[in-house]
Amino acid sequence: MLARGLERASVSAMPTRILIVDDEPRFRASFSEIIVREPSFVLVAACATAAEAFALIEREPLDVALVDLGLPDASGLDVIRALKRSPAQCEVMVISVFGDEDLVLASIEAGATGYLLKDSLPTQFVACIQELRAGGAPISPMIARLLLNRVRPLAAPVAPLELSERELEILRIVAKGFSVAEIAQLLAISANTVKTYVKRIYQKLAVSSRSEAIYEAGRMGLLDARVSDD
Amino acid sequence: MKPVAWVFWTLAFLTTESGAAQDVTFGDASAPDAVQITTLASNTPPSADATWQTAQLPLLSDESDFGTDGAVWLRLRFELARTPQAAWAVYIPRQRQNVAVYIGNNLIGTSGRLEEPASETWNYPQLFEVPPYLLRAGSNEVFVHWFASTHNESYLSQIRIGPEALLEPLQRERYALQVEGPVVVSVICGAAALFMLALWVRQRRDVVFGWFGLVCLLWVVRNAHLWVQEPLLTATAWEVVSHSSLGWLVAALFLFAFRLMGLRYRRVEFALALYPAVGTLALALAPDGSFSLIERWYFLGLLPIAAILIGYLCWKAWKIRTFTIVLLTFGAIVCLGLGTFDFYALTVLYERVEQVYMMPYGALLFTLTAGWAVIDRMVSDQRALQTLNADLEARVAARERELAQTYARTAELNREAAVFEERRRITRDMHDGLGAQLMSSIALAERGTLSAAEVAQLLRECVDDLRLAIDSLKPLGDDLNAMLGNFRYRFETRLAAAGLTLDWAVEELPRHPALTSEVVLQIMRVVQEALANVIKHAGAKRVRIEAFFDAAKNAVCLNVSDDGRGFDANSVRAGDGLANMKSRAAQIGATLDVVCECGTKVVFTLPLALASGDYLFGMHR
Question: Most CB contacts within 10 A, which of B76, B249, B501, B504?
Answer without folding.
Answer: B249
